Amino acid sequence: MAKLRASNSLLRGVEPYDPKYLPAQVGLNANETTFDVPAEVRRDVEEAIARVAFNRYPDPMANELRDAIAQWHGVTRDCVVCGNGGDELLFNLALAWGGEGNALLNVPPTFSVYAANARLTGTQTIDIPRRADFSIDEEAVIERASRGDVGMVVITSPNNPTGDLASLAFIERLLQATDALVLVDEAYMEFAPQGSSAAPLLASYDNLAILHTFSKAYRLAGARMGYLLASPAIVGELTKVRQPYSVDAVSQAIALQVVRHRDAFNEGIALVVAERQRLSEALAALPGITAYPSAANFLLVRFEQDAAEVWQRLYEQGVLVRDFSGNLLTSGCLRISVGTPEENDRLIAALQSILA
Ligand SMILES: *Cc1c(COP(=O)(O)O)cnc(C)c1O
User: Fold this and answer.
1) For residues 179 and 129, is the Cβ–Cβ distance under 8 A?
2) N or C: which end of the chain has fewer CB within 10 A?
3) Distance (Å, rounded) from C-alpha 355 to C-alpha 287?
């Protein structure tokens, strides 16, 4: 007879994260860059992998990569910590600044991982929902964050799935109003206008952490590498909770090449930004659609028609996007990643036929 003790009570009722991984000809569902790393980078990556010692443990802190990232951003090594994707760093932050007596202040609709991590770590989540146009209720966030019971505030900029940027004046006021860790998740910042990043505030605020990932603009979603820029105090606490070998030697080698060749990615980023503009204009011309402004590599689109049905009909035509219509705050919405010009043309043609 099968016998198994109940797992941790925090898992009761938890649904596993399901990104609805489906094969499709045109995959515009996960905010990846839909084309490969540049050929010359790929060559150097392959050479670097060939030199990796598979029999040896990797440098647990990935110091060579850490130094390259630190130099890139004009900070010192002790202000950088790498993770197995940004997602692992988000979990480590929940362990270190969550738990009993340390609420998470969340600003939905936003990335679902923050609230999921809070739940798994026994952290209360306090929601300050965005307004109907998805702008942040800045005064309400600042007021709530300053009451003393918040361990961490997460501001995603550009926000996923809504695409909007947070204002730097707001982030600075928030940093001043609270001793909570303020995480600014900049997973999509490379697609935003210059000057939008909170990075210049790092030098002045010990409670600021900025999350970056190689998964989106740097086209490494398959290799798993993210990093946090933060004060040495924050990095020090994270090194207590992180898994020592979570950042493997192969991913370290790949990411190091990408940092060294980072300028080679600018052309691809510029293409995505130009296509975002073209796609948004093409969508706005279709009947029954609102496309929200976006500083990221995706567009959130609201349909007057049943969005789940639009999703299904797109999928039947080989185009996979992400359905957010089941969430009250994004009812009627699909999120569409910006692809290559050909992929975007296919999406537009499919939507024209569906909405006609
Ligand atoms: C994609 C994403 C991340 C991190 O992704 P990884 O692949 O784990 O690096 C973090 N935050 C947001 C908002 C994202 O969309």
Assistant:
1) no
2) N
3) 7
Residue 86, ligand 1, Cβ within 6 A: yes
pLDDT, one tens digit per residue, over 55-110 is 999 999 999 999 999 999 999 999 999 999 999 999 999 999 999 999 999 999 99
Distance 19 CA to ligand 1 centre (A): 12
| 212-244 tens-digit pLDDT | 999 999 999 999 999 999 999 999 999 999 999
CA of residue 285 to ligand 1 center, whole Å: 31
CB atoms < 10 A from the CB of 120, how many?
A: 16
- Checking if the pLDDT of 162 tops 80, the result is yes
Q: Output the CA 222–ligand 1 centroid distance in Å.
A: 12
Q: Is 215 in the pocket of ligand 1 (CB under 6 A)?
A: yes
pTM of the model: 0.97
Q: Is the CB of 111 under 6 A from ligand 1?
A: yes
Distance of alpha carbon 278 from alpha carbon 162, whole angstroms: 18
C-alpha dihedral sign at 163, 168, 174, 175: positive
- Determine contact, residues 292/263, Cβ cutoff 8 Å: no
163 lines ligand 1 (CB under 6 A): no
Separation of 116 CA from ligand 1 center, angstroms?
A: 14
Residues counted in the chain: 356
Distance CA 120, CA 15 (A): 11
